[in-house]
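FAQ: What does a ligand-bound record look like?

Like this one, built around S-adenosylmethionine:
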Amino acid sequence: MSRPFTDGEVIVLVDKVGRRHRVRLRAGERHSIHSGLIQHDDLIGRPEGIVVTTQLGARLLAVRPTFAEQVTGRRRQTQPIYPKDLGAILIAADLYPGAHVLEAGTGTGALTMAALRAVGERGSVVSYEVREEFLEAATRAVVDTLGSVPGNLTLKLGDVYAGIEESDMDRVLLDLAEPWQAVPHVKAALRPGGIVFAHCPNVSQVQRFFDCLREVRGFGMLEAFELLQRGWTVRGRSMRPSHRMVAHTGFLCFARRIDADELFEPEGEGFR
Ligand SMILES: C[S@@+](CC[C@H](N)C(=O)[O-])C[C@H]1O[C@@H](n2cnc3c(N)ncnc32)[C@H](O)[C@@H]1O
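The answer part, i.e. the structure of the complex:
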């Protein structure tokens, strides 16, 4: 069932060249863009997917933001995980309904909310953030996106390099500059068979993270990959790769906690 747009919600207006404008609908207000004005009252109460016209005749498609647009399209103080990587992380780290997830750092809350969505109501997410102002911004992002901070999400002010209070976690997600500093604590917090993920923008970070997993022992199946996203233009007879692509963002690194104080690294390449 299509729900009509309501006063107070955030929508996206898409113009003819694909530019997206985030607009919070407020009764009686109007939104100005280069191609004219849109009255919010022309949208409130109307169904998603309508096309509206500015007083200058420009046509705009009105839709609700997708999850990726909601969590990564906000003004922010730190770099969120890119949408192209978010989905891959959830599958490769195998975040399943009911899983208990430990994350650090929270940053904008983009990965936090993706994880929360994957684990569902039976699961839980605890997210550590060392900077108070980032934690406050992430809390606002969660409230804007989900309406409130759900009971199965704990946003925690804390330094993950200093320790992790939780134990028996199913998954650990790390997106911070020195993930190797968290490895001894991750070893204690993760249950056997659990998976640790680290997002590493630089290959030197991958090496140091993996070296540390090997030193600390108790991990296996170390793996890293990256995703390059090349869009295509499909318009009339023009079918070709886009001029620009979302190329390197970060290496996605994974390992499994094993129930032995050794290292288990199969010789073959790739198990995915
Ligand atoms: C790249 S951002 C994380 C972005 C996040 N994954 C997202 O999707 O928005 C890194 C975050 O880690 C936080 N951080 C850095 N060191 C930390 C630590 N030792 N413990 C907890 N958080 C930390 C930073 O303050 C920053 O907010």
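Follow-up question: can I read anything off the structure? Yes, for example: The radius of gyration is 21 Å.
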